[in-house]
Amino acid sequence: MLHSIQMSLNRTNRITGLLLDVPDDGRALHERLTAAIRAAVLAGRLGPGDALPPSRALAEELGCSRWVVNEAYVQLVAEGHLTARQGSGTRVAPDAPDVPTRPVVPPSRASARAPSPVVADLRPGAPDVARFPAAAWNRAMHHVLTAGGGADVFPPPGGVQRLREVVSGYLGRTRGVAVSPEEVVVTCGTTHAVGLLAGVLARRSASRLAVEDPGWSRLGDAAAHAGLAVEPVAVDGEGVDVGRLRRTGADAVLCSPAHQFPTGAALSAERRRALLAWAAERSAVVLEDDYDAEFRYDRKPIGALAALDRDNVAYLGSVSKTLHPGLRMGWMVPPAHLRDPVVEALERSGAGPGVFDQLALARLIGTGDYDRHLRRARTLYRERREAVLAALYGHAVIRDAGPVEGIAAGLHLVLSLPPAHDDRDVADRLERRGVAVMPLSSYTRRRLRPALVIGYGRLSPSRAPFAAAEIAAALESGARR
Ligand SMILES: Cc1ncc(COP(=O)(O)O)c(C=O)c1O
Fold first, then answer.
1. CA of 476 to the centre of ligand 1 (A)
2. 290, pLDDT greater than 60
């Protein structure tokens, strides 16, 4: 019996689908199983929130008693690697201080070397998807599915009417953009919207789209794929440089006026006027990427550009920062003369969010659950911002490097590095220590001051001191450029 237990314990996954190596090293079975699960968690093969099999199933698979499995689970719960809750079983702890998330390599910095497990993920971009309002979404979806909401077999090309109604109300209320439901076009998010608009503009003989530098290249890539040449325009502390924009001869510009990505600059009042004047003179289109306007902490609300000019501004928003980027849902309000071509392009592409998701989002917004979620999320992210700032400023090497920028809004900040450092080297060194950040230079073709772009949306306050200490250590030990 002992022999067969040991044989089958070498490897699992016949019944549970869980792949564990449990080599026979002479220790007691429960200790070996404990070590095997711990190793899987630390290596990121089991990620935060992953469910462990019920003890009965794992015991059956291993050919051992349930006691062995229970002992292992109890030990790992005590260590903080697992959590056990009535009703949801045993899972990998979402936020244990030393549990790495799955190893991921940012696409722009992918290297041949095997990625290190990410212990603290400070890459900007995503919100904390663990805070997705699952119960409210479930209620909304349940309502849709039981109220016969999917009666339209195909969603209308511009989006389901109810969603366009609540989005028009939301934009008026929160962004000062007064639009009718008919003017709203439902999209699969901002990347989708940029691709659609760029395609329409290219077919109307536009050739050049100016994009912010530094900026998020994925949107420029979508426009290039749709046929526009992409021309970077420098951004400074007041947002995009309109003087330089004028010199590009571009037919359209993509910018993030409320909170420039990644610098965090807000487009100044003077620049706003200049930008709109430029657009009116050239009949150019301003693609307004309003990607994180919901998260504003200690500055006055900045209305959308589209509130000032509906003729030349195409407003773009999505739920990627507020709910979950995987939902692939957003909206745009194109200038009136582009609405029909955009909707036609949408229809021809056959792409758009499903009718159930659209109706569930409409319900979430319409019941007030979306606003309630945003209020909670704002508090959560403000706390995370405070925690990361306090932790960073606790280190002289960081304090002395200059002010932390872009902190008034959003989910990320820009940390200046001492001038002698190369931000890519610092980011690489941090990555090897399990701390994932993005160097500012990965968002630009220019030579900018060295800085790190740090997303704090997914960084729990308990892990902030660790991340800050690692950043400080990387700077203190750092290679110079
Ligand atoms: C600068 C910027 N714009 C827009 C988006 C949203 O893009 P999408 O709606 O396609 O997910 C993001 C998301 O990460 C972003 O960082």
1. 33
2. yes
